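Feature request, filed as a ticket because there's no other form

It would be nice if the structure record came with a short human-readable summary line next to the tokens. Right now we just get the raw output. Example of a typical job, pasted below so the devs can see what we mean:
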Amino acid sequence: MTARPGMDGIDMNTYIEYGPDCQFPIQNLPYGVFSTAENPTHRIGVAIGDQVLDLSVVQHLFNGKLMMHHYSVLGEPTLNKFMGLGFDAWHETRETIQHLLSCKDKGLRNNYELYEKAFVPMSQVTMHLPADIGDYTDFYSSREHATNVGTMFRGKDNALMPNWTHLPVGYHGRASSVVVSGTPIRRPNGQTRPKDDEPPVFGPCKLMDFELEMAFFVGSGNKLGEPIPVQDAHKHIFGVVLMNDWSARDIQKWEYIPLGPFLGKNMGTTISPWVISMEALMPFAQPNPVQEPKPLPYLQHSDPFSFNINLEVAIKPEGSDTASTVCKSNFQHMYWTMKQQLAHHTVTGCNVRPGDLMASGTISGPTPDSFGSMLELCWKGTKDVDLGNEVKRKFLKDNDEVIMTGYCQGDGYRIGFGSCTGRVLPANQM
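Raw output as currently delivered:
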């Protein structure tokens, strides 16, 4: 039996064994989509300890007043339909899962045949994208990151553009190239202009970079023409994942004026496979950052929706047995909240749908060791990033593996995000 403090201060006892540093205690219960060698069907699971609870096997046990009519969504190959059920259904489902895993419940635990089918060792599963991602939006919501990049390219006095403190800046990204953790990313070919007084050239990106981000999945959406008010935005946010929004800095520098990122960002975006619910994160909510000037009314909300999530990035060079940490940051450094991002995104009446993905933008903190990209860590190529054993980097080399992790530290338990990993493959020969 494993006992851990509950989110409301009440002990939650589960028959699944795990230690205090386990990423997936009963307070977490993230959702993901998995398969096994024995059963290649994609199905929804919940992580608990070192096990995955296969919801397709136990869907008939979800007999609450809402899910009793919709439990079949737990047998789907993606989370989209479940996401679309909305806030109250997510809460009821989470309560049912905690009940099924608690020592007080005998139904699942004492049904040997069902138990054996329902739990799969995490070591035996292959993880997939948790949802069909219809649309992907990338914001630019870290003031430290925006200031760093602006200082490099425009100078300290003109670092932030005039609109930055008035609205969550963002752009529409490419959903088709969002991949699950562990998928390699090929170095892109493209146009660059290494010398400002010479014509552009074509070839492999030379300034390959990572971007430490987090992203949320939209749950229930809205009708075209009907904005989501900021006060209600949390009811439309299903959960959060880690993200590496890979960037080809030299391709992006040449192309981004006047319309912004394009080929410098579309070669791949990596997300972690487990979606951490907002209910699991709410105990770690912090006061929102002070915003000056005060945002316009449609962006104002007083409920805390900034989160204390410890984040780390490590790089493992080819041939190395160890990964070296290059960044330690925190999600609470964000200037614009997820609620503000969603409210701003839909204020025009833009409709969002279950499974849409919205990213934070690079998460950088106030100190050099908390900068969330190689561009900042090497300060536009003027510094080396030390990986140990006399290995240094300015930008990523072929076969470097980037590993992102995150967690919230509770009293006697930890809410983990798993990992978001990807290795840089050499560019195609063209």
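Something like this underneath would help us a lot:
Confidence is low (pLDDT under 50) at residues 3-11.
The CA atoms of residues 2 and 198 lie 65 Å apart.
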